[in-house]
Amino acid sequence: MSDAAHNLKPRDGREVEDAVQWALANAKALELVGHGSKRQIGRPAQTDATLDLSGLSGITLYEPEELVLSARAGTPLADIEAAVAAKNQMLAFEPIDYGPLLGAAAGRGTIGGALAANLSGPRRIKAGAARDHFLGFTAVSGRGEIFKSGGRVVKNVTGYDLGKLMAGSWGTLAALTEVTVKVLPRPETEETVVILGLGETAAIRAMSAAMASPCDVSAAAHLPAGVAERTPGPWGAQPVTALRLEGVSVSVVHRRRTLRAEMRPHGALALLAEQESRAFWRKVRDVEPFCADAAKTRPVWRVSTAPAKGAELGAMIVAQAPAEMIYDWAGGLVWVAPAAADDAGAQAVRQAVAACRGHATLVRADAATRAAIDVFEPQEAGLAALTRRVKEGFDPKRVLNPGRMWAGV
User: Fold this and answer.
1) Are residues 227 and 147 in the same domain?
2) Is the predicted pLDDT of residue 183 greater than 90, yes or no?
3) 112 closest CA partner among 185, 10, 64, 180
4) Inside any domain, residue 304
5) How many domains does the chain have?
6) CATH, residue 138
7) Share of residues in the chain with pLDDT > 70 (%)
8) How do residues 208-232 score in pLDDT, each as one tens digit?
9) What is the CATH number of the domain that holds 328?
10) Where are the alpha helices (DSSP H) in 117-191?
């Protein structure tokens, strides 16, 4: 394990334990990273050394018949996705690749990072987020102790489900060293029914109707005109509302006919065949319209709300300041790119979230902005106290990613 300039790169779980114990003994704080694809999310690092987990790589168990895979936490998602695709399987939570949005290379995310950030893509409305596929793990707490939770079976309810706690903790509670996830069969094919020309409110109505239909829609997104224009397809500069169907070919064809009939009253229709559909949803998943060089100086927010409130939330933000939106999860996930502002649009976003209920995370902004405003949703007093108690239980000396999510935590 190298410690040059306090950059620690362990090769196994025992060396991770040694690194955390070194930090405890020397009153040091550690920044946890894999390949750094999400390093710019959160408050700027308040740490003395880097714990680089990219050396913990490799699939340790894969049983396709049991739909279970275990891997060391630093294993690239690309390696895992390639391995399961070879068996016609997939990570159903469809994790976003944050690299390009944050100005880094694509394909650098790790399985540990995906779970620690609780990532999910367009299929979230059907399959759930990363935490819903997280079966078990081995980790090192901020106390410098190795511990395990969960197992290698889908139905595992013994003890506390600590995976749910680790998912979304952003490395502030423990350093994951090995994880086990559920995989699922990959759909044989997919198609996407597209409705052209809808405004945001009409689009939310159409997506809600599609989700309530018997057509088993696995993704629903709306791109307003300016954003749609930067996402090439058979819509030109028109707004596009997209509804994905996945499964065996015969079923997809049948459901597509039904869905088209139900959506026809909402507007003109188009269709994306399998390859076009896959490419489109990758762009939506990775927020590609906001990745362009010209847009990289603009802040980007990730806002979750009730799907029926998506259009209202977007309208409230735009009423205060110019901004572009992408609506995913049938309106429940709103990506917001405000025009440049001193507070990265925080006042407009937070006011809209308070009115519509939900939570917002500042995904992209410079370090000075991320240090000055709340990056993650501010917590009310009771929840903040609980968060501090959980942190105290796992990391009393605040060794692991201190202050990344909230000051003092």
Assistant:
1) no
2) yes
3) 180
4) yes
5) 3
6) 3.30.465.10
7) 96
8) 999 999 999 999 999 999 999 999 8
9) 3.30.70
10) 124-127, 162-166
- The maximal CA–CA distance of the chain, rounded, in angstroms, is 67
Q: Are residues 293 and 281 in the same domain?
A: no
Considering the chain, what is the average pLDDT of its residues? 94
Residue 330 is which amino acid? A
- Which tokens is 264 given? 């026809």
pLDDT > 70? residue 153:
no
How many Cα atoms are found within 13 Å in the side-chain-facing hemisphere of 50?
Answer: 14
Q: Do β-strands 333-338 and 323-328 pair in parallel, antiparallel, or remain unpaired?
A: antiparallel
Domain membership flag for residue 166: yes
At 159 the pLDDT is 63
pLDDT higher than threshold 90 for residue 162: yes
Cβ burial, residue 94 (10 Å; 0-12/13-18/19+):
buried
Element (H, E) at 349: helix 346-356
Closest CA to 181 of 64, 68, 56: 68
Q: Cα(277)–Cα(10) distance, rounded to whole angstroms?
A: 40
Q: What pLDDT, on a 0 to 100 scale, did the predictor assign at position 132? A: 96
Q: Is 393 contained in some domain?
A: no
On whether residue 389 sits in a domain, the answer given is no
- Residues 189, 246 contacting (CB under 8 angstroms): yes
3 has a pLDDT exceeding 70: no
Residue-level pLDDT at 297: 75
Same domain, 194 and 103: no
Structural element, H or E, at residue 361:
strand 358-364
Q: How confident is the model over 345-369, as a mean pLDDT?
A: 95
Q: Which domain holds residue 361?
A: 288-372
Single out the residue in 133, 152, 185 at which a domain terminates: 185
